[in-house]
Design goal:
The chain contains eleven helices and no strands. Helix content is 65%, strand content 0%. The longest helix is centred in the N-terminal third of the chain and has 39 residues, at 3-41. The protein is an all-alpha fold. It has two domains: 3-72 and 225-242, Arc Repressor Mutant, subunit A; 91-210, Tetracycline Repressor, domain 2 (Orthogonal Bundle).
C-alpha cells in the first residue's frame, strides 16, 4: 500500500473515532440534562425542547439518540439503577456473612424504591416486561449474591435458579406493595426476612438478620456515566440549534 493510501486510511479512521466520541458526548449531555430536569420537575413536566436546550445541542440531535422522551427517561433510570447497584456492592467489603450482605441489599432497594417512586416503578416494570432479568442490573447482582452464599453453604437451595427467580419475584412484589400502600414502612425488613427464609435460613435467624442496624451506602448523585457535568460543546453546538432531525451529532 502506498504512503498516500495509508495516510488516507488513517485519516478516515481518525475521523470515525472523532465522530463516535462526538456522538457519545452528545448522548451523555442529553442524559445528564434529562436527569437534572426530571429530578426537578418530573418526567411528565419535562419537554424534549427543555432537554436539548439544557444540553446545549440541536433539537434534531435528540432523535439520533432516542426515539421519544420515554426512551431517554428509561436511560436515566437504568443509569440510576446501575449507580445504586455499584454502591450496594460495597457492602460485601465490610460484611463477611453473605446472608447479612443480601439482607442489607434488599433493605436498601426497598427503602430507595419507597423514597423515589419513579425509580421503584421503573424497576418493577422493566423486570416484568423484559426477559433476562438475572443478567442485568440488580437481578444480576441478586443472582451473584445468592450464588456466593450457596457456595459458602450459608444458603440451602435444591434448585438455585428457581430459588433466585422466586427471591427476585418476592422483592418486586414487596416493592409494588409498598408503592401501592399495601405494606407499611417495615417493608424493607419484611422483604429481607422473606428472601432469607426462601434461601433456607430458619425464620427466627432470618428475622434477626433483617432487623440488624442497616449499614449506609454512598450512592453518588451523578450516575456512573455522568460523574462529571459536561462542559459546553462550543460553537458547533450553538450553531446546531437549527439542525434538522437528519443531522448526525
Amino acid at each position: 500500500m502506498s504512503s498516500g493510501h495509508a495516510k488516507a486510511g488513517s485519516a478516515r479512521r481518525g475521523e470515525a473515532g472523532r465522530g463516535a466520541r462526538r456522538r457519545l458526548e452528545t448522548r451523555t449531555r442529553l442524559v445528564w440534562a434529562a436527569r437534572e430536569l426530571m429530578a426537578r420537575k418530573g418526567i411528565g413536566a419535562t419537554s424534549i425542547q427543555e432537554i436539548t436546550d439544557t444540553a446545549d445541542v440541536g433539537f434534531g440531535s435528540f432523535y439520533n439518540h432516542f426515539p421519544s422522551k420515554e426512551a431517554i427517561a428509561e436511560a436515566v433510570m437504568e443509569d440510576a439503577i446501575e449507580s445504586f447497584g455499584d454502591a450496594a456492592d460495597q457492602l460485601a467489603r465490610t460484611i463477611d456473612d453473605p446472608a447479612e450482605v443480601l439482607a442489607a441489599s434488599v433493605r436498601h432497594v426497598l427503602a430507595r424504591a419507597a423514597a423515589e417512586e419513579a425509580w421503584g416503578w421503573f424497576l418493577v416494570r422493566t423486570a416484568l416486561a423484559r426477559g433476562g432479568g438475572l443478567r442485568r442490573g440488580l437481578g444480576k447482582r441478586l443472582a451473584r449474591d445468592i450464588a456466593i452464599g450457596a457456595k459458602r453453604q450459608r444458603f440451602r437451595t435444591e434448585d438455585p435458579l428457581a430459588t433466585t427467580l422466586a427471591a427476585g419475584g418476592a422483592i418486586l412484589a414487596m416493592i409494588a406493595g409498598r408503592l401501592q400502600g399495601e405494606i407499611a414502612a417495615d417493608a424493607p425488613e419484611r422483604a429481607a426476612t422473606v428472601v432469607l427464609k426462601l434461601l433456607g435460613l430458619p425464620p427466627r435467624e432470618a428475622s434477626q438478620i433483617a432487623h440488624r442496624p442497616l449499614p449506609a451506602i454512598a450512592v453518588p448523585q451523578d450516575s456512573a456515566a455522568l460523574r462529571r457535568v459536561p462542559q459546553p460543546l462550543g460553537r458547533a453546538n450553538a450553531a446546531g440549534r437549527g439542525r434538522r432531525p437528519t443531522e448526525r451529532a
